[in-house]
Amino acid sequence: MTALRSAFSFAVLVFATGSLGAQPAPAPPPAVTVLKAARMFDARSDRILSNAVVIVEGSKVREAGAGLAIPAGATVIDLGDATLLPGFIDCHTHLTGESSDNWLADFYEGLRRPATEQAFFAALYARKTLESGFTTVRDVGSSDAIDVGLRNAINQGLTPGPRMLVAREAIGATGGHCDRGGFPPATFGEEPGPSKGIIAGPE
């Protein structure tokens, strides 16, 4: 019995020592991607630079300038006769809705859609905004927290889109710009109130 207990204790000691000594493998260095183009707008100097090189490490721009040395092992994307621009910032957006030339029809269509369906349209609008060169937006009004969900999905890499600063419900007066009420309750539900950003006075 003593020999068995000693063997068991030794096995536990070996297991514990091995567990303490095991170290997680170091994370691999982030991939480096280099963008090359004929020109680049430098917002700091307000000049157009030739022989543009942008070095991206992981998901962040590490360096940008004219004729920079390309790091060894980097993936090079040559855009040819293109002009690179810094990411634009739009300070007034509503990515959860988009209007065409027929604003009234779009307005009613948006009221008819459930929030879950509208969220898919919001993801489409976010991708189009990013592909248009806008990397940050200030989204100034939404409904049903779709803007919050969209921001979180973008941050988690679930859908492409710009960096979003969100406001949730817009604030407006009864009958004003942000009030989507005035319809029979059976048509689009109960009238919006303070919880939806619609108020009738300073209180």
Topology:
Layout: H1 2-21, E1 32-42, E2 47-57, E3 60-66, E4 75-78, E5 83-84, E6 88-93, H2 103-112, H3 115-131, E7 134-139, H4 146-155, E8 163-166, E9 172-173, H5 185-188, E10 198-199
Parallel strand pairs: 1-4, 1-5, 6-7, 7-8, 9-10
Antiparallel strand pairs: 1-2, 2-3
Helix pairs in contact: 3-4
Notes on the structure:
30% of the residues lie in helices and 27% in strands. With 203 residues, the protein is an alpha/beta fold. Among the domains are: 32-85, Urease, subunit C, domain 1, CATH 2.30.40; 89-168, Amidohydrolase (Translation Initiation Factor IF3). β2 (47-57) and β3 form a beta hairpin. α3 (115-131) crosses α4 (146-155). It is extended, with a radius of gyration of 27 Å. The model has no long low-confidence stretch (mean pLDDT 83).
